[in-house]
Amino acid sequence: MTLDVAWAVDWTRRTADEVFARRSELNELDRQIGDGDHGENMARGFTAVIARLDALEEPLGTVGDVLKLIATTLMSKVGGAAGPLYGTAYLRAAKVSATPALDAPGVVAMLEAALEGIVARGKATTGEKTMVDAWSPAVEAAVAGSTGGADAAAVLVSAASAAELGAVATIPLVATKGRASYLGERSAGHQDPGATSTAIVLRAASDAAAAHGA
Amino acid sequence: MKKLINDPQNVVAESVEGFGWAHADIVAVSFDPDFVSRAGGAVAGKVGLVSGGGSGHEPLHAGFVGVGMLDAAVPGAVFTSPTPDQIAPAIAAANGGAGVLAIVKNYTGDVLNFETAVELAEADDIEVSTVIVNDDVAVLDSLYTAGRRGVAGTVCVEKIAGAAAERGDNLAAVTAVAEHVIANVRTMGVALAACTVPHAGQPSFDLTDDEIEIGIGIHGEPGRRRIPLAPADDITEMLLTPVADDLALAAGDDVLLFVNGMGGTPASELYIVYRQARKLLEARGVRVTRSLVGNYVTSLEMQGASVTVLRLDSELTALWDAPVNTAAMHW
C-alpha cells in the first residue's frame, strides 16, 4: 500500500483534533517544567492549519504540498520554540515527499528528514529531554520496520509506538536543552511536552494510515 | 484568578492598540503582522534597533520604542516569542539605511524565531547584526543548559545601544556597545507568588503562602530553588551576592543599580530591596553612581523583584544619561 494526499490531509486533521482534545494536558506538562503554553501554542497553530486546508479551492497535488502548508503555517502562527522546530520538521519532510504517494521507504525518508530538521534548528541530541527523544526512536523503529519488509502503514504504527515510549522515557531525564534546562535536577520526574506532542503527531499519522488502508 | 480582560485570545492585540493610541506622539502600531515602530518611521542614516519577545513583560519592549532607544518592538503572544513573519517586517520598518541591530533575550524560542527573521531580512538586503542578552546569573551558563536567560538587563542594553545609535555610531560600533553592556550586566530575581497567563487561567507554578522561588526567569517558569519566606534584607542578599560575585566587582567600581519589579510588588517594597542592595554594594567599596527602580521588565502580575547591576565606565555612563523619550522611560 501507499499513503497518498488524502492520507496526509486526514493525518493533519487527526493531529489537530488530538491537539485540541489534549490542549490542557500539554499545557499542564509544560507548566511543570516550562511556561505552561505548549498546548495553547500547538492549538493556535493547528487551528490556522485547518483554516488554510478548508480554504483550499483545489486539492493539493503531493504529500509534500500538505506538509509544506503545515510548515509555513506553524512557522508564522506558533512562535516560541515549538513554531520553528515543528515548522522546520514539516518543511524538511515536505522536501523529500514531493510525490503523490509514499511507500514504506518514502515514509522513512520523510521521518528522517523531519528529525534532521529538528536537530539542525534546536541543536539537541537524544537524552536531553526534548522532542528529539520521541523523534529519534520513532525514526529508528521506522527504519527497522521498513528494512524488515513492513508496509507504509505498519512502519507508522512502529514509529508512533516508539515515539510514545520515548515520550514516557523522558520522565526521569534531566533537561539540558530548552526552557526546562533552567530547572536543572528539578526537571526530572516530568514528561517533556514536546516529546508528548511528537507522539500525538505520529500516532495521528498511524491512525490515518490504518483508516486509509481499511 | 480575576483579570481585567475581554477574550483571552485578544489580550495582546487590544493592549497594543490601546498603547498605540495612548502614545501616538511616540509610536505607530502595525497590525497583521503586529509590531510597534517609532512615529514618523525609520530615521535616515541611523542604525535601527529592534527587539521583541513574548508579551506580558510590559513596558518591555514596546514601552522603550522612541528617540534614544528602540526603533521597533515585536510583541508575541503572552510569554511566547513573536514569529519570523512579524519580526522581519519590523526589521524593515526600523531600517534607515544604516543597518539594524536585533536585541534578543536568550530564550530558545526568541533566538530561533529571530534567527529565521534575520535570514529573511538579509535576503531583502538589509544588514542585520544580532546580540543575545544573557544577564541572568541564576542559570548556569554551561553545556547542560540553554545558557543564561536574558532578563531585566535587557533594558540597559536597549537604552545604552539606543543612545549610541542616536549619536550616529555605525552598526559595528552600536553592536560593540551592546556587547560591552551585555558583558558587564548581571541580574537575579525572586518570586513571592507566580503569575497567571490569561488563556491558561491558573498560576504558572505553585507556591504555598510561606515559600518563595529564587532564581526565576520572566516567563513564569519556576526558578532554581524554593525556600521559606525570609526578611527582605536576607532575600536581597541572596540576589545581590551572586550578581556581584559573577561581575567580580571590586572596590572603586562604579555601577548602575537597577531594582526591577515583576508587576505585583509595590514600589515601597522595591525601595526596601534597593536600600539593602546599595548597602551591600557600598560595603564592598562599590559606588552606586546611577539608579533605576520600578516595573520595567514584568511577568504579568507576578509578585517579586530582580536586582540588576551594570558596571559603568565613563562612556556607558554618558550613554545612559543621554536623552530618551519613550512611553516608559523619559529624561
TrEMBL record, chain A:
Keywords: Kinase, Transferase. Residues 6-207 form the DhaL domain. SMART domains: Dak2. It holds the Pfam family Dak2. The keyword Transferase applies. Signal peptide: none annotated. One of its GO terms (cellular component) is cytosol. One of its GO terms (molecular function) is glycerone kinase activity. The keyword Transferase applies. GO terms for biological process: glycerol catabolic process. PANTHER family: TRIOKINASE/FMN CYCLASE, TRIOKINASE_FMN CYCLASE. This is Dihydroxyacetone kinase subunit L. The gene is dhaL.
TrEMBL record, chain B:
GO terms for cellular component: cytosol. Residues 7-331 form the DhaK domain. One of its GO terms (molecular function) is phosphoenolpyruvate-glycerone phosphotransferase activity. The keyword Transferase applies. Keywords: Glycerol metabolism, Kinase, Transferase. Pfam families: Dak1. Transmembrane segments: none annotated. It comes from the Bacteria. It catalyses: dihydroxyacetone + phosphoenolpyruvate = dihydroxyacetone phosphate + pyruvate. This is phosphoenolpyruvate--glycerone phosphotransferase.
